[in-house]
């Protein structure tokens, strides 16, 4: 059985590699045509899509999936509309491929510069949401990459039906059907194979829970663009404007609790206890946020705040819980963030230029902010027009990853018969 | 024993991480001071360096190292001069760190852009040449990274003596001695540990033979900037200028045989046999280059060319051997390169704009050239001012890697109390 799966995945990989050559040289118009024709196909396949999804929903209900999982899995007319809208938005984005930059003469007389090119073949591994199938495929098509999509087994019927629409869209634009391939086996060995075919797959993007991402990163021999923890901080500096500090610390924690860019630890300068911390506690309490403080916080607010335990500083709650620490200097705040943070997103609230400049330089995170809520760390908010994920790695893509994260640059050289002396 | 090594490497890693914070916020002047003070220390330690090197040379002679290895290992006054000159050149390069670019307003009112930052801690693993110790350390210091250097055991005394000079240079600039650390054990377990400490090491750069690089890439859990094969092609197009074609195909093969950017396979359009291939064969023969041809080449030049075997198209000879194939179209040439090449460096010789444009777009290599010798694929020739290696990967750095390859970009956001709605 596993041998059959290996064989099947190798064939997917080989045909994806071939298709990637076609996509790499495709015109912008051709790629956009594929996206818009897929949108049409989805629109005309609503009945089929909903019927396929109902099969997945029934099986998942029978398997006892919880309500949150079932909600993520469900397709309905509004969600199909969103997929169609998403395809149109990606079609409207500028094409990153082919951009030539920095061509300059060097002393030998050649001209050297760079040209933006697709990565080749992207493997996407994700969980229940079937809309990821369209979203990920559309970004890969636009950036000239072939893609192999491995969704959750609970969404297999929905994903196959969506794949059929993608095939129709690709055909209209004259692309091979193998430009986007959905893995049609639910055998887990397929994932193991997908992440260890460096000949056929150039990068893996896992989307899902931390467990999935850690497992894939550990076992992959193909590079992985990954997002692990989001332990984000807001530091209220000695020179903070109290109004801005309260607004930002409230928004970063409570606007939504689940996202990875929500604040998990509030660091506050000791001079800001009365002006900022006290009113913030009122706000958090009114919103039922559980508060856990360092010794100083507990000493001041014994009745309102629990003591942190050893694990709190590095915890990603994704819930209405907040850790709070009083610090006596900017240095202490920066050290805390670089030690306990996850290099995701951290913000300082300050009116002092030098403190802001130091925070910007010394905090080693993928997004570093001044006087803004950590909740802005997002591809759409940053104007990327799309987001394949957020990377907490330092190599290749860092922070929110849009179309550019699915591309690379090669050197190009123009000469006129030049040889090396 | 292995446990001791693990412990030792963990301590190196932890102190490198700490030192990286100091280097990351260092001024350009401070980094340059460390480089120039190291140059002074080398100049004043000539006797010590030569004595340490003599210990390595004696041991290596006793161990029966071959002449080529011994030559790479040897230090002398001229090579110390070169190390000093190299430090001065790196000090003169522009500092890439801290560059802020693309700051722009997005609809929410925040300003978003990017800032260039060091990667953190770089692990360099290399073989006999002691000059790599200075070269790699200087690039890491300039780019604000801490570094852990693991040279060959045959160069251990030389490397320790050089490390002493680096420590003196770091001290003059007020940097911790742990900013550059030479692994002082020759136990092989040290390498295994270095490449599996993602908490402490951000990227590994192996420099050496293919065996070393493959082993490290396979076993590393830290990202690796690597260079594997250099199977480079020159394609002489139907529309090639014969004079340029001959000059380039000669230079790409014979200017030097060993470098990774030397041509290994010549692809030639069938219309160019008399104008280009015939005179080229004379040149290659006069230089004792062994010629291996496809069936068509053998049919035309049976007495001058051997038949290729199955392995020749993918072979990296690094020697006076050349594979030659006659093709009947640009498509055939591009397919050959994408199938058998190593995505290193490939060049087309042509006067036809459309052929040049297609070759540039469709050949998936880290350097793609028009009317220039593949031998130009080099960080110094490209004007990078330095080269830590050449990457045949697509992610992060592709092609010759200079200072920028040792950096990353983080997002930065400026607001004025902005929160997400």
TrEMBL record, chains A, B:
GO molecular function, one term: glutamate-5-semialdehyde dehydrogenase activity
InterPro entries, per the entry: Ald_DH/histidinol_DH, Ald_DH_C, Ald_DH_N, Aldehyde_DH_dom, G-glutamylP_reductase_CS, Glu-5-SA_DH, GPR_dom
Swiss-Prot/TrEMBL catalytic activity: L-glutamate 5-semialdehyde + phosphate + NADP(+) = L-glutamyl 5-phosphate + NADPH + H(+)
Keyword Lyase: no
A Pfam family it matches: Aldedh
The entry's keywords: Amino-acid biosynthesis, Cytoplasm, NADP, Oxidoreductase, Proline biosynthesis
Domain Aldehyde dehydrogenase as annotated: residue spans: 13-286, 314-377
Pathway field: Amino-acid biosynthesis; L-proline biosynthesis; L-glutamate 5-semialdehyde from L-glutamate: step 2/2
Stated name of the protein: Gamma-glutamyl phosphate reductase
Residue ranges of the TM segments: none
Function as written in the Swiss-Prot or TrEMBL entry: Catalyzes the NADPH-dependent reduction of L-glutamate 5-phosphate into L-glutamate 5-semialdehyde and phosphate. The product spontaneously undergoes cyclization to form 1-pyrroline-5-carboxylate.
Catalytic class of the enzyme: oxidoreductase
Taxonomic source organism: Denitrificimonas halotolerans
EC number, UniProt record: 1.2.1.41
Subcellular location(s) per record: Cytoplasm
Family as reported in the entry's similarity comment: Belongs to the gamma-glutamyl phosphate reductase family.
């Amino acid at each position: 059985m596993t041998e059959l799966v290996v064989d099947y995945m190798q064939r997917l990989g080989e045909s994806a590699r071939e298709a990637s050559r076609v996509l790499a040289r495709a015109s912008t118009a051709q790629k956009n045509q594929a996206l818009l024709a897929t949108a049409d196909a989805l629109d005309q396949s609503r009945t089929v899509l909903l019927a396929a999804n109902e099969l997945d929903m029934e099986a998942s209900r029978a398997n006892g999936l919880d309500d949150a999982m079932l909600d993520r899995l469900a397709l309905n007319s509004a969600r199909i509309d969103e997929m169609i809208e998403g395809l149109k938005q990606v079609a409207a984005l500028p094409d990153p491929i082919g951009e030539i930059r920095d061509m300059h003469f060097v002393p030998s007389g050649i001209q050297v510069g760079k040209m933006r090119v697709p990565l080749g073949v992207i493997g996407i591994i994700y969980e229940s949401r079937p809309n990821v199938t369209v979203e990920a495929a559309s970004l890969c098509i636009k950036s000239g990459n072939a893609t192999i999509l491995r969704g959750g087994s609970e969404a297999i019927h929905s994903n196959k039906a969506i794949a059929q629409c993608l095939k129709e869209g690709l055909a209209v634009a004259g692309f091979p059907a193998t430009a986007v391939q959905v893995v049609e086996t639910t055998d887990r060995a397929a994932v193991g194979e997908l992440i260890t075919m460096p000949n056929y797959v150039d990068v893996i993007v896992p989307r899902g829970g931390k467990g999935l991402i850690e497992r894939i990163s550990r076992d992959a021999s193909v590079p992985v663009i990954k997002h692990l923890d989001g332990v984000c901080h807001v530091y209220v500096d000695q020179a903070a404007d109290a109004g801005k500090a309260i607004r930002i610390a409230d928004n970063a924690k409570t606007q939504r609790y689940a996202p990875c860019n929500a604040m998990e630890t509030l660091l506050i300068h000791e001079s800001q206890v009365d002006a900022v911390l006290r009113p913030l506690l009122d706000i958090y309490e009114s919103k039922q946020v559980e508060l856990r403080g360092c010794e100083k916080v507990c000493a001041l607010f014994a009745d309102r705040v629990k003591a942190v335990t050893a694990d709190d500083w590095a915890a990603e709650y994704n819930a209405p819980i907040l850790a709070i620490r009083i610090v006596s200097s900017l240095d202490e705040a920066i050290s805390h963030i670089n030690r306990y943070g996850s290099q995701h997103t951290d913000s300082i609230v300050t009116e002092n230029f030098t403190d802001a400049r130091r925070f910007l330089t010394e905090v080693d995170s993928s997004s570093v902010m001044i006087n803004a809520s950590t909740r802005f760390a997002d591809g759409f908010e940053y104007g990327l027009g799309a987001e394949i994920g957020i990377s907490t790695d330092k190599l290749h893509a860092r922070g929110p990853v849009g179309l550019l994260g699915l591309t690379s640059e090669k050197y190009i050289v123009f000469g006129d018969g030049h040889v090396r002396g």
